[in-house]
Design goal:
Helix content is 65%, strand content 9%. By secondary structure, the chain is mainly alpha-helical. The chain has 2 domains: 3-215, Cation efflux protein transmembrane domain (Alpha-lytic protease prodomain-like), CATH 1.20.1510; 221-339, Alpha-Beta Plaits, CATH 3.30.70. The protein has a 3-stranded mixed sheet. Helix 1 packs antiparallel against helix 2 (46-72), helix 5 runs antiparallel to helix 6 and helix 7 (221-234) packs across helix 8 (268-286).
């Protein structure tokens, strides 16, 4: 089977798996929403209500994620030459905004409960339901994050992290209910709800911030560092140094631009074929779908000690070592200053 067909089939399989994960997330989130509101009906607990309000966000986010996953996995077309992957970041921004809104509502309701002095009923039954829902959330969150990372789905990773944060807030709710049961101090219940609101506000802020950074193609230090390791591992003779590296992320697809230094006496065909072979080796081990566009720069004599070209006709210094591609060099917009004057 041709490699292009195999890659197409692999992408299609990954898309189906990601969509299946989104369906699972929506179904379980809906069931847990019903469980938590039933627990609130039994107990009148403000902390449980805060957990239930977050579950509304989970269901809304899972519904949007399902649609976004469908859009983001569509192939590139004439109107969207880089594909539709950035749609996933809109899902993350929307989810972060919903979480922040839920945090505000929780604070409003909790303050009202403290003023009214609401009493909690049937704590034991509420605890059982919330503990069961919390365990289910933990398992679902771990599943979504693992699936999203394996198939490079930002929407699934964001949903999974939110579901995991829901587990942590459920733990806070459980702790608050246990304290109320032990002490009989009922204002601890809305206090636990306010703690949940703080956790949600923190989560929502970071989701929105990270998604906006991705939409604006902010530099990802971890990603560039990892790319440098792949450049070093895939290096072939004649690829001397690399700088001015930039990455545009469109969901699971990465478009990489970089300047590569090659021997100055190479002709166009040799430089083209060599960089193409190098690109293929990098993409093979990179872990993301993508492409690399190299701008060819001629070498300078100061590079001689790091150049392993055996038949170099202009060498002034013996080759001594292969220097790894560092983050500082890869992200430099120009050659190192000391090279520009040689």
């Amino acid at each position: 089977m041709p490699q292009s067909v195999q890659q197409t089939n692999t992408v299609a399989d990954a898309s189906r798996i990601v969509r299946r994960g989104a369906y699972i997330s929506l179904t379980i989130s809906t069931l847990l929403l019903v469980v938590k509101f039933f627990a609130y009906y039994l107990t009148s607990s403000q902390a449980i209500l805060s957990d239930a309000l977050e579950s509304i966000v989970n269901v809304a986010a899972a519904s949007l994620a399902l649609f976004i996953v469908y859009v983001s996995t569509k192939p590139a077309d004439r109107d969207h030459p880089y594909g539709h992957g950035k749609a996933e970041y809109f899902s993350s921004v929307f989810e972060g905004a919903l979480i922040s809104f839920a945090a505000i509502m929780i604070f409003i309701e909790a303050i009202g409960a403290i003023i009214r002095g609401r009493q909690i009923m049937r704590i034991d039954e509420g605890l059982i339901l919330i503990i069961a829902a919390g365990v289910a959330n933990a398992l679902l969150g771990l599943f979504l994050v693992r699936l999203g990372r394996r198939h490079h789905s930002v929407a699934l990773i964001a949903s999974g992290k939110h579901v995991l944060s829901d587990f942590y807030t459920s733990a806070a709710v459980i702790a608050g209910l246990i304290l109320v049961r032990i002490t009989g101090v009922h204002w601890l219940d809305p206090a636990a709800a306010m703690f949940v609101g703080l956790v949600l506000a923190y989560t929502g802020f970071h989701l929105v911030r990270d998604s906006i950074h991705a939409l604006m193609d902010a530099e990802d230090t971890k990603l560039i560092t990892s790319l440098g390791e792949h450049f070093t591992a895939a290096r072939i003779e004649g690829i001397i140094r690399i700088h001015h590296t930039r990455v545009i992320r469109s969901g699971s697809y990465h478009h990489i631009d970089a300047h590569v230094v090659v021997p100055e006496f190479w002709d166009v065909l040799t430089a083209h074929d060599t960089t193409n072979r190098f690109e293929a080796k990098v993409i093979e081990r990179y872990g993301h779908e993508g492409e690399i566009h190299f701008h060819i720069d001629p070498c300078r004599r100061v590079y001689c000690h790091a150049c392993d070209v055996a038949d170099c006709k202009v060498r002034r210094e013996n080759f001594s070592e292969v220097i790894p591609f560092t983050f500082a060099e890869l992200t430099s917009p120009t050659e190192p200053e000391e090279l520009q004057h040689r």
